[in-house]
Amino acid sequence: DGVTVAPEKVKAKVDACMEKTTDAEKDKCIVAAAKTLRSVEPCESTVSISRDECVLQYAVQTNRDAECAKINSTELKDECFTTIAVKKGLTKICESVSTSGGRDSCYSQIALKRNNYEVCQIIGSSTLKYDCLAKVGDKKNDVAICELIPESTVKDGKSLRNTCLISTGKKVPAVCLAYSDYDDFAKCYS
Known about the structure:
mainly alpha, 2% strand
């Protein structure tokens, strides 16, 4: 997939970019040149942003996750894979992220963007996994998803499963049941 572009083509594009007025315009032009040529070559000539930042912008703007691998900075490379994985909704791309925490975050972002609880299930960190399930369960108003959270899971001092169930409107907080008057109960419940 890494097409070699004739050096004179790259030079012509970069030279044209260097005629722009500001550094920001030059760099924007260089990112555009990378897109046009489908190559990271022009990124070697950036002015105010790093080569890696240029490759990141080019890869993300064109959704070409294969280009992320050409970034030297691990942090930017991970950001590149995650951004494209979330845009495309493809968990497979998350697998290229260098740390388990980064991969989990990538999966979590896809799950929340797609409202897909099954993606939450592949998260390694139980804290993040159950938080993901609670958010998706809440968004989909789906009790079954809340019930995948173990009762023992606590977040902010509360049972995460109960918080999820309450936000889906299926579980009435016991304290509200103490009100015999419907208006008081409704106020408490809402």
